[in-house]
Amino acid sequence: MAVDDVIRWFHILAATVWIGGMLTVAALVPALRKVGVSREQIQAAARRFGVVAWAALSVSVATGITQVIRLDVELAAPLTVKLILVSVAVSLAFVHQEIARHASAALRGAMEAVLLLLALAVLGAAVAL
């Protein structure tokens, strides 16, 4: 297996963990609330997911940059769109993490929905490459 294949494999794995984790959390949180799990317990789980998500996102960004450099990829429209979407998603994820403790459930839910849509848009942009 060539180095570029390994880099791409880690890139896809990290993106899968990030997006798949968000889908899982999006499905679990309402179910946990419905059965009476406390807000503190949900927040603890969300913080734990945050550690995994930031690690996966960091690997994905690092391997993405490495691929652009190693493969001498031209910044064509689909890649530019993907990079913009990733930048917006990372920024929104940071803001969400910083304000989540003090934000209303409605605001947190709206931000999480937008993050999930952005992640799916990133995936769509990646498929278009």
Number of domains: 1
Query: Largest sheet at a glance?
Result: none
**Shape call:** elongated
Weakly predicted, low-confidence segments: none
Strand tally = 0
Mean pLDDT over the full residue set: 88
Structural class, by secondary structure, is mainly alpha
The proportion of residues in beta strands is: under 5%
SSE order, one letter for each helix or strand: HHHH
Annotation field: number of helices: 4
Measured as a percent range, the helix fraction is over 70%
In whole angstroms, how far apart are the ends?
A: 22 Å
Query: What is the radius of gyration computed over CA atoms, rounded to a whole number of angstroms?
Result: 16 Å
Task: Kindly list the characteristics that best describe this protein.
129 residues, mainly alpha, 4 helices, 85% helix, elongated
Walk me through what this model shows.
Helix 1 runs antiparallel to helix 2, helix 1 (3-34) packs antiparallel against helix 4 and helix 3 runs antiparallel to helix 4 (105-127). The model has no long low-confidence stretch (mean pLDDT 88). This protein has one domain. With 129 residues, the protein is mostly helical. The two termini are 22 Å apart. The chain has helices spanning 3-34, 39-70, 77-99, 105-127.
